[in-house]
Amino acid sequence: MLSKYARQSTENTFEKTRHIARIGMIAAVYAAFTLITILFLGSLAWGPIQFRISEALTVLALFTFDAVPGLTLGCVIANVANMALSGTGALGLLDVVFGSLATCVGAFITWKMRKRPLLALLGPVLANAVIVPAYLPILLKGIGFYTIPFTDIDLETSYMLMYLFGLFTTGLGEAVVLYILGLPLVRALKKTPLPASLEEPEGMQISV
User: Fold this and answer.
1) Per-residue model confidence as pLDDT tens digits over 67-117
2) pTM exceeding 0.85
3) Which Gene3D superfamilies did the record assign (predicted)?
4) Which CATH class is domain 20-193?
């Protein structure tokens, strides 16, 4: 009897270790991809027009719930690093808190709707489109700029216009990343042993 309980305890410990390791790996990859985008594309990873390439990794939530805390943790790490790289200072905490919240909400919706991948990927698009523009104008104004890129239109005095602009550009950028990069990533992953190793116990099958 003791050996049975000991075996169950060992299995539970091993499973918990697997989950922690998986979350850590996803967080590390997301943070690394985000920092690469920040270093090479600058504000395209956090500014008024965003194409954060690492958001394509949200598709991992189609395979495992561990992607939700993993992506969230990775976003926190990347946004903390960005506070120093972009010069946002303490205002960057807005991105750390609310930007990471948007990633968490989007990843969770993707996981909850994983049986319908095309619809599931709308979760991150909507979460980022709604949440990020709500704080981004405050952050940008604090570091001294908010002119719509490629125009001379200054929206510094109009929060609502800034929000609407961000709603469109952030949502569009997220959609491009997820549907142009994310979906091919899903198809590529399905040809590897990775999805089977990430599957939840009930084994969710997806088709794209």
Assistant:
1) 999 999 999 999 898 887 766 677 788 889 999 999 999 999 999 999 999
2) no
3) 1.10.1760.20
4) mainly alpha
